[in-house]
Amino acid sequence: MDSYVELARPGRAFANLVQNLPLPAGTDSVNIPKLLTGTATGPQVADNTAVTQVDLTDTFINAPVRTIAGQQGLAIQLIEQSPIAFDEVVFRDLMSDHASQVDRQVLNGSGANGQILGVHQTVGIQTVTVSTVSIQGVYSAIANAIQRIHTQRYLPPEVIVMHPRRWGWFLSLLDGQQRPLFLPAASGPMNVAGVLSAVASQQVVGQMHGLPVVTDPNIGTTFGAGTNGTEDVIYVMRASDIVLWEGAVRTRVLQDTKAQNLTVLLQVFSYLAFSAARYPASIVEIAGLTGPVFG
Fold first, then answer.
1. Is the whole model's pTM more than 0.90, yes or no?
2. What domains sit in the chain, N to C, each tagged with a CATH number?
3. Cα–Cα distance between 273 and 255 in angstroms, integer?
4. What pLDDT digit, counting tens, does each position of 144-166 carry?
């Protein structure tokens, strides 16, 4: 059983970075109050004169509850007579795909047809377009993204997230003397553009501009009409401003639904809600990249 070859699937690196909260029971949407305009203060001109008064206004953000689900029917003979626990094989694969699907929804859900509204589709997030697809252009764009969050959110960004191919491109870059611009942290590098912390997948792999870099293969690589649909994006963000509410992932074994065919239905499902609209200014999407070339 332990030696069978599972299907390789990406996980949920981006979804695990954001603030994860339990989904409230008994609701089909989550409403978050939000101040639209604030109060004001100012100097009092003289004693016993009017004090500055500006009334705040508010609104709310709505995050509808959606369902992520999948199923497969198995012949009862395969469950009862197979030398391996084939139902466990199916459930493992369903759970693996469920994790990938949650991550893709958080990144780029359309908000329609049962999907949550993902980060890429959220109105108000900031965008920086690279001047050139070079170390100078991309490094400067990341610095611009960082200062934008400081300037408009007034709190620091927390993480940089990119596709593994983009991180691989950074690691391939050399200076004028053919020395790598990104070196392992264990080498005690000096005057480098970034640091390689670990040869890892879908977790912290290094550091740029003092921020951890996380790779996620679920980030799309077909954005950008101007780049012939070969564009991946980089996110610089304050991940704690983004909220993902999740219920427990549940499994079901239904023996009666297709009993006339001796088919057992295996299901996996969960409920979730998501919002990147609390502070959209705390997310910067770096665009204008083209597919990297190696060698």
1. yes
2. 13-42+51-117+243-275 (3.30.2400.10), 123-242+279-287 (3.30.2320.10)
3. 30
4. 999 999 999 999 999 999 999 99
